[in-house]
Amino acid sequence: MNGLFGSWGRSWLMSPRAFQYACAASGILSAITGAAAFITSGFLPPMRPDWTAEETVQSYRDHHKGIQAGASLLIVSGMFFLPLTAGIFSQMRRIPNLHSAVPALQLGSGAAAIFAFMMPGVILASANFRLDRPVEITQALNELFWLTVMMPWQPLMMQSFALAYAVIADTRPKPLYPKPMAIVNIVAPIVYIPPLTVHCFTTGLLAWNSVFSFWVPSIACVIQLLVDSVYLAKAANEETEAIEKEC
Fold first, then answer.
1. Looking at the domain assignment, is residue 10 inside a domain?
2. Does some domain include residue 104?
3. Which DSSP string corresponds to 46-105?
4. Nearest residue to 176 (alpha-carbon basis) of 83, 244, 91
5. Is 162 a domain residue?
6. CB of 21 within 8 A of CB of 233?
């Protein structure tokens, strides 16, 4: 047994490079599973917030199995977000003269942000669990689901701004991350702001099914996850190559 684990421990899959690649890939998997959750649930396009309770429940009945899968996928999406956060934290610590509070803020915000993925998944599972209950209860749980999907973006903003700050503060001729990464991590959180008002509207440009509250923030989130994942993989590769040259 010791020999088997010793062999695994010396394999490439257990190397620091492989682990950091896995962290980067987790960001892509988070985006994929998050998008798949909405697709399988039949939430693209989203439910209308002005639907009656009967219309809402009928939609749940029509997509019952898909919503079961979607709720689980949404929770898994949050799980994959954690390794990405840890990988970014590890690389941020390589930036010279960066105050320790900056990577700490990124790590803490990322850890808190997983609940923005996981809690909606649990609420969606609850809404879909017993469709023979009074329709008003399912409608209330459905509304809670959409509000928890849309509104708690603040940890993501803090995480993104901390990363953008670190990228801008790295003034070396060959910085760890390129400056366009900072732009993505500044612009993306800004477009998350309109969903903060979705509890005030059932129709119009700021309702939860609108372009400004759903489509633009969702696309921005996916782009941000992909960009951060790709540049994390590149930074991890450069770090490993530098260590190998020193050896």
1. no
2. yes
3. PPPTT--HHHHHHHHHHTHHHHHHHHHHHHHHHHHHHHHHHHHHHHHTTSTT--THHHHH
4. 91
5. yes
6. yes
Pick from 9, 35, 15, 6: which is nearest to 221 by CA?
35
If one counts the domains in the chain, the total is 1
Domain residues for the domain of 106 are 19-237
- What does the DSSP 8-state code read for residue 152? -
Per-residue pLDDT of the chain (247 residues; tens, 9 = 90+): 666 656 666 776 777 888 999 999 999 999 999 999 999 999 999 999 999 999 999 999 999 999 999 999 999 999 999 999 999 999 999 999 999 999 999 999 999 999 999 999 999 999 999 999 999 999 999 999 999 999 999 999 999 999 999 999 999 999 999 999 999 999 999 999 999 999 999 999 999 999 999 999 999 999 999 999 999 999 988 877 666 566 5
- Domain assignment present for residue 9? The answer is no
Q: Residue 116: phi, psi to the nearest 5?
A: -70, -20
